[in-house]
């Protein structure tokens, strides 16, 4: 009935053996806050017999959600092969020949090739099975290779696998149409040794002091036979266990006590040697490689605590109204002791605009047994507006002592909002940042202890992904090169490095450690055609804890610091990133610590509205994203759009790879007609996609930049 509808052609395609991929538009799941539905959609699609693969129309959303690794873990866990394209060719290739060579008890060398001369390359799959009879539909593929030569792969075990019998190996050849040959010869390994289980980690650590209501955790190297544990846990002095909980892998055991432990008491937990893994190997408690000995953990509980947690610092400050809070800023509060994380709830941590609750997220991190709480609104705050962060009574320490009164922190946002945002590095993926000691300018540090890296343990509360960069520092005076400086350098060749002018503001979120060390930005300055100078911002003293947005307003001549520039002025025609720099003063600065950084970016600010909203009588009746003009453009163009209802608006520009290059709007807006300018001076010539998202509606258009 509908010859031009794609649905009419599914069954004929299935009958012909055609391949179909299906999948969600990931950006739609993102816009509707149902990102977690990916797994269910993929699993449901796998139940459809004619589905052969997946596509996700991900744009930059997978990158923003840091979803590549989770996707691999959740629904792309195994090597696989494409179904045979029999409608194109049905000829089976010749079966390969395989040899198996034992390297040691845990390593096998597998060599395979075609027994005939190949005129074109083909695929080879290597299988491993516990059974002697090959079954290509269920046996595990351990390697896939492509070519026309002899291949070698190694299958290496760590001795911690649950299987300790013989494995059987074979290979198949697959043509360019994925027609699979019959299995090769099957080769058998010796029994693969599986070592005795050990305890690889505990909470608390040996000798640690912990709260009385904490639950000890033991992590084992192998899958444990949980039935062997029931009568093998002994606690001195006696403490009644309410439950023993296991993780899904049966490798981590948590002891839940029926009552809190006694205060200021030394406890010993002994795990008997009768604990076994699922292969029947007994516990190797002392890690000497021989099974049959127990494991002993000793720890002490804290003295009795009757006092609730006390706030010892905050940004914005508690005792005065802060009147210039950035609309993208974060709020941090630090306490004199560790908080009970379960008391940090949506009812106890709240951000208000007048009486309206503002959607926000928080991040709780414990440093030196003291809690730091950072709160961030999910979207930019309104400019020139009063806000209140309220920490409710009921927030408690780990001993159960709850705060008796609410704490309100009032602040007023800046008159400026962001009209343009260009991400330099969101630290979701490693860039070409050097290690600190790679720069000759770095001095006054212990090289082995001063490092740059990435972590998933500390992150911005409202970020789309949970990852940040870190700088671990250790200062040490060197009389042969006096002074202290860490230059964390980004090469000019890094694809993330961008060129810009002084109409921008440089920003980065810095997780402070209240160390009184210092931070500044450094940029390269271009004069004519030569990058001939370095300029730096003024030093910023890191006197706060938790996340805080720091910036350099490049148009402010008083914001320029002094380093190796001949004039300490921003008078070039272009700029690019050189480095983050960190300093130290022996009289006040902490010697060792770790700082974290996230969302390094350029923004443009304005105190003017983004666009001009019409009166109620003239308000638009529908949502619309119009074509930019001029188009093609060089380098400035205007993007018109209209919204009939108030809502949070995001207007973003992507390159053809789906990578976000500019965020033009990200804020609450009233109904009306709007025009937003895009300055493409820092972008390469080519096609771009711009996307408008508001109130569950999404619109996209293309534009062309020609330089």
Main attributes of the structure:
45 strands, six-stranded antiparallel β-sheet, single chain, Immunoglobulin-like, mainly beta, 707 residues, 5% helix, 5 helices, 6 domains
Q: What is the overall pLDDT average?
A: 91
- Unreliable parts: 611-617
Alpha carbon gap, first and last residue = 49 Å
Query: Beta-strand percentage?
Result: 35-45%
CATH architecture field of the largest domain: Sandwich
Total count of strands:
45
* Total count of helical runs of at least 4 residues: 5
Structural class of the secondary elements? mainly beta
Domain SbsA Ig-like: 196-301, 308-413
Domain Secretion system C-terminal sorting: 629-703
Protein name: T9SS type A sorting domain-containing protein
Keywords: Signal
Structural account:
By secondary structure, the protein is mainly β. The chain is 5% helix and 40% strand. It is built from five helices and 45 strands. The strands form eleven sheets. Strands 27, 28, 29, 32, 36 and 38 form a six-stranded antiparallel β-sheet that branches. The two termini are 49 Å apart.
Topology:
Layout: H1 10-15, E1 21-22, H2 26-31, H3 38-46, E2 53-54, H4 61-64, H5 68-74, E3 97-104, E4 107-113, E5 122-129, E6 140-147, E7 151-156, E8 168-174, E9 187-188, E10 199-203, E11 209-210, E12 217-220, E13 233-236, E14 241-246, E15 252-257, E16 266-271, E17 295-301, E18 311-315, E19 322-325, E20 331-335, E21 349-353, E22 356-358, E23 360-367, E24 370-377, E25 386-391, E26 407-413, E27 417-425, E28 451-455, E29 468-474, E30 486-489, E31 499-500, E32 505-513, E33 518-527, E34 530-536, E35 540-541, E36 545-553, E37 574-583, E38 592-606, E39 624-625, E40 636-643, E41 647-655, E42 660-669, E43 672-679, E44 686-694, E45 697-705
Parallel strand pairs: 1-2, 11-17, 19-26
Antiparallel strand pairs: 3-4, 4-7, 5-6, 5-8, 8-9, 10-12, 12-15, 13-16, 14-15, 16-17, 18-20, 20-24, 21-22, 21-25, 23-24, 25-26, 27-38, 28-29, 29-38, 30-37, 31-37, 32-36, 32-38, 33-34, 33-35, 33-37, 39-40, 40-43, 41-42, 41-44, 44-45
